[in-house]
Amino acid sequence: MSVKIQKTNAARLLDAHKIHYELVPYEVDENDLSAPHVAEQLGEPVECVFKTLVLRGDKTGLFVCVIPGAEEVDLKKAAKTSGNKSCSLIHMKELLPLTGYIRGGCSPIGMKKSYPTYFHESCLAYEQIYVSAGVRGLQLMIRPQDLIDTCQGTVACLI
Fold first, then answer.
1. Looking at 5-49, which runs of residues are DSSP E strands?
2. How confident is the model at residue 5, as a pLDDT?
3. Is 120 within 8 Å of 71 (Cβ atoms)?
4. What does the pLDDT look like over 114-143, one tens digit per residue?
5. CB atoms < 10 A from the CB of 152, how many?
6. Which residues touch 14 (CB under 8 Å, ≥6 apart)?
7. For the sheet containing 154-156, what is the strand order?
8. Which of 2, 39, 70, 126 is the most buried (most CB within 10 A)?
């Protein structure tokens, strides 16, 4: 008996654009929402599991960075790439009201508003990458270029 996976808003948006992807469930550990944990659950190298971060620039306002899961965003590079002098991660309490997503379930696809989105260049080294499908416990496996195109994203060095 197979478990029926609920489609997320991110998945429905990909369907609407006729973009191929797979929904891949994993076991959630509320005490460890990290990408390395997700990669371990998926049995995949952490380098191809990407996390979605929302930042606020001093000039442009909110923007999104999608980076390899085990890495930290370089705030100077992110600021420069996004046309800001400085930037910082938004506060956790702001994530749901601004994006519609919770920590550990933030997808670059289907946020409440469309924010400029930047993908770390390493994503292009993989045939498929993983990003959150918009809920904890579910990842999207997708071709990086399809994801970048869907988000109208820009590829940059962010780490």
1. 21-25
2. 77
3. yes
4. 999 999 999 999 999 999 999 999 999 999
5. 9
6. 21, 109, 140, 142, 146, 150
7. 87-89, 50-57, 61-68, 117-120, 154-156
8. 39
Strands ordered across the beta sheet of 138-142? 21-25, 138-142, 129-135
**Residue 133 half-sphere exposure, CB side, CA atoms within 13 Å?**
23
Burial class (CB in 10 A: 0-12, 13-18, 19+), 134: buried
* Global confidence as pTM: 0.95
Beta strand extents in the chain (DSSP E only): 21-25, 50-57, 61-68, 87-89, 117-120, 129-135, 138-142, 154-156
Would you tell me how many other CB atoms lie within 10 Å of the CB of residue 31?
7
129-135/87-89 β-pairing = unpaired
Q: Would you identify the CATH topology of the domain 9-156?
A: YbaK protein (3.90.960)
